[in-house]
Amino acid sequence: MKTLAFLIVLFLCSSINCLAQEEYMVTNENDTIYGEISRSLNLLNTAKVGYKIKSADGRKSRINPAKIKFIRSLDGVDGDCIIAPIYDEWFVKRILDGRIKVYQLVDGIVFFTSKDDSDIILNDFGGLNNREDSMDQIRPLIEDNSVILQEFNSLKGSQRDIIYIIEKYNKLNARFYISYY
């Protein structure tokens, strides 16, 4: 009987926790706007991905990347993730979090990075890029850790290698880093 009561309480707590999570966006003025986030299509330029937010009162509005800091998406096409604007025009999805954040262009294969919550910059690696060029772009991000840098220099420089080394760098530096979003 105690086990059944415990399972019921556990189920109720997890249900309440799931209901408490909402999608939202944070504007450049630090206003948080809650609502349902969805992708919007640009029929004149299908390569440009946009987002809309549907507020509690049912109004839908297009999200201007120049006016927001980030979007917190829970479900939908992009899943559970953080989406940030880049160059006030496009959106990137955060694929790695930590001291070094890695972003990927939404519906693209272009990569961007940010270290210690600095501006997000183009730092493309993998794919059709030259491996040496890719390594040269990433090296300044990890050069403050000599152990990681030594291992990095022994790798081939593929996209998988670079993601691996950034994940390892973030794990080793996790105890010293607090993310602001």
From TrEMBL:
Signal peptide, first to last residue: 1-20
Keyword flag Signal: yes
Keywords: Signal
Name of the protein: Uncharacterized protein
Species name: Leeuwenhoekiella aequorea
